[in-house]
Amino acid sequence: MDETRIKSKLPIAREGFPILLSGCALTCLFSYLGFLSLSVVAGVFSLFTAYFFRDPDRNNTVPDKAVLTPADGKIIKIQNIEDQNNPLGEPAVKISIFMSIFNVHVNRIPIEGTVKNIDYHPGKFFSANLDKASEQNESNRITLQAPDSRKIVFVQIAGLIARRIVCWVKDGDHMQTGQRFGLIRFGSRLDVYLPHDTRITARLGQKVSAGINIIGYLS
Predict the structure, then answer these.
(1) Is 78 helix (H, G, I), strand (E, B) or coil?
(2) How far is the C-alpha of 8 from the C-alpha of 162, rounded, in Å?
(3) DSSP code of 8?
(4) What CA dihedral angle connects 33, 39, 43 and 49, to 10 degrees?
(5) Which pTM does this prediction carry?
(6) What's the pLDDT tens digit per position in 91-118?
């Protein structure tokens, strides 16, 4: 795992620094040259970059077997899947969280466990709030095994604008609930697959924050 990223204390994700520094440099350059309008545009872009890549420190004590949302955003789907034709490989509950460009885009581990598999799939870039985004968009699938041997799967999915999925963990890493594990640049989506007997507490349309809000409890 990349511990410098997972345990970062910086208020902005490091992936945003090159863009932020470029924006600040352009702001100064345009101002020096007397191009006021361009200086204002570059300044606004720099401020938005800092806002988009913000990485607030979140520490939260959670009840036993509680599953936290891995992403900030809005819950757009809660679906029971009766067959085994899904990333979990058994009957499951699928919860989808849509992240707009105004949400924090750093993703966090839903529950303590060991990373058993990471599977990256190149793909298309449909709008992340569409159902076909789960199947056809670029994605990064992470399978996590909890201490009681139950498994969950969460999938980072690129969107219409999001073209960069970042993952800081690898197979075999033991992760704590709420730790950072990656991010997706710009609007995107995360799907979570939980065992079918999970007690779901999430609500359709609910706004959630990664590492804070509970979406369910493993049985």
Answers:
(1) strand
(2) 23
(3) -
(4) -90
(5) 0.88
(6) 999 999 999 888 998 999 999 999 999 9
What is the Cα–Cα distance from 17 to 37, expressed in whole angstroms?
23
Q: pLDDT (tens digit, 9 = 90+) per residue, 34-66?
A: 999 999 999 999 999 899 889 998 877 888 899
Beta strands in 60-138 (DSSP E): 66-68, 73-81, 92-99, 106-108, 113-121
Q: What share of the chain is helix, strand, coil (3-state, %, to 5)?
A: 20, 35, 45
Largest CA distance in the chain: 64
Q: Which of the residues are catalytic?
A: 188
Structure tokens at 37: 């309008």
Strand ranges, E, within the chain: 66-68, 73-81, 92-99, 106-108, 113-121, 139-145, 151-157, 165-167, 174-175, 180-184, 188-195, 199-200, 207-208, 214-217
**Residue holding tokens 């105004």?**
102
Contact 212, 58 (CB under 8 A): yes
CA angle 71–46–184, rounded 5-degree value: 25
Element housing 211 (H / E): none
Distance, CA of 79 to CA of 91 (rounded, Å): 11
Residue 95: beta bridge partners?
Answer: 78, 192
For the record, the structure tokens of 197 come out as: 């007997």
Distances (CA, A) of 215 to 119, 129, 194: 24, 19, 10
